[in-house]
Amino acid sequence: MIKFEKKYLKILGLSLSFPSFILALAWGFHELIKVGFMSPIVGWSLFFLVIANFIFLLIKFAFQKKK
């Protein structure tokens, strides 16, 4: 069994959940746009902002745990 250091488990969990997070987020925003809850520009802008925040958190945790 592979053992990971405890400090890397949060980063590993975030990185493994990233693809399914993107798919669920895209589907959710697509449905909100289709229903008319928000305009396409607002919906996809929020989508990309959430993705950018997720990537920022991955990088932030990686640098914090590096020390």
What is the straight-line distance between the termini? Answer: 26 Å
Strand-residue fraction? under 5%
State the helix count: 2
Calculate Rg over CA atoms.
16 Å
- State mean pLDDT (0 to 100 scale): 85
Shape: elongated
Tally of individual domains: 1
How many beta-strand elements? Answer: 0
- Estimate the helix proportion, in percent: over 70%
How would a crystallographer describe the biggest sheet? none
Q: Structural class, from helix and strand content?
A: mainly alpha
> Which residue ranges are poorly predicted, with pLDDT under 50 across at least 5 consecutive positions?
none
Order of SSEs: HH
What tags apply to this protein structure?
mainly alpha, 2 helices, 0% strand, 67 residues, elongated
